[in-house]
């Protein structure tokens, strides 16, 4: 079983910064892609940023130039540095890890989600 624990959410004023962290633990065999998604009230979950095992990154247009995703493969962690926050960034942010895990039936595909952390940006 794989667990993702997120931290770093909170309340911040517009223009401020926050750093989200996500740590994956458990029966991880390999981690491929890691990412952050968000879901605002009344809206669908959307991709914020992703990072491949090779370090390639992609970002939603709305956060390009403001957010930076990074990963530490030794610790199985992924961070999201969020700068110049806007009120429209207010959402629950979810960490996602894709890879492979060790199960009682052998190696299986892994697609794990964190519990979510709330980011509120006041204007």
Structural features:
123 residues; mainly beta; four-stranded antiparallel sheet
Shape summary: elongated
Beta-strand percent range: over 45%
User: Averaging pLDDT over every residue, what do you get?
Assistant: 97
Spans of at least 5 consecutive residues with low confidence: none
Q: Total number of β-strand segments?
A: 11
Write a structural description:
By secondary structure, the protein is mainly β. It contains no helices and 11 strands. A hairpin with a 6-residue loop joins strand 4 and strand 5 (46-51). The strands form 2 sheets. Strands 2, 4, 5, 6, 9, 10 and 11 form a 7-stranded mixed sheet that branches. Strands 1-3-8-7 form a 4-stranded antiparallel sheet, with no helix packed on it. The model has no long low-confidence stretch (mean pLDDT 97). The chain is elongated and about 50 Å long. 0% of the residues lie in helices and 64% in strands. It has strands at 2-7, 10-13, 18-26, 28-39, 46-51, 57-59, 67-72, 77-82, 91-103, 106-113, 117-122.
Furnish the topology, listing elements before pairings.
Elements: E1 2-7, E2 10-13, E3 18-26, E4 28-39, E5 46-51, E6 57-59, E7 67-72, E8 77-82, E9 91-103, E10 106-113, E11 117-122
Parallel strand pairs: 2-11
Antiparallel strand pairs: 1-3, 3-8, 4-5, 4-9, 5-6, 7-8, 9-10, 9-11
Summarize this, please?
By secondary structure, this protein is mostly beta strands. Helix content is 0%, strand content 64%. It has strands at residues 2-7, 10-13, 18-26, 28-39, 46-51, 57-59, 67-72, 77-82, 91-103, 106-113, 117-122.
């Amino acid at each position: 079983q794989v667990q993702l624990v997120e931290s770093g959410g909170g309340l911040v004023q517009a223009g401020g910064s926050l750093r989200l962290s996500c740590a994956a633990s458990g029966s991880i065999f390999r981690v491929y892609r890691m990412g952050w998604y968000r879901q605002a009230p009344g809206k669908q979950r959307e991709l914020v940023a992703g990072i491949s095992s090779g370090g390639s990154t992609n970002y939603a247009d709305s956060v390009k130039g403001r957010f930076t995703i990074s990963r530490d493969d030794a610790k199985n962690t992924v961070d999201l540095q969020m700068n110049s926050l806007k009120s429209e960034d207010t959402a629950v942010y979810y960490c996602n890890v894709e890879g492979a895990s060790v199960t009682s039936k052998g190696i299986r595909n892994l697609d794990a989600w964190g519990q979510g952390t709330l980011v509120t940006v006041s204007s």
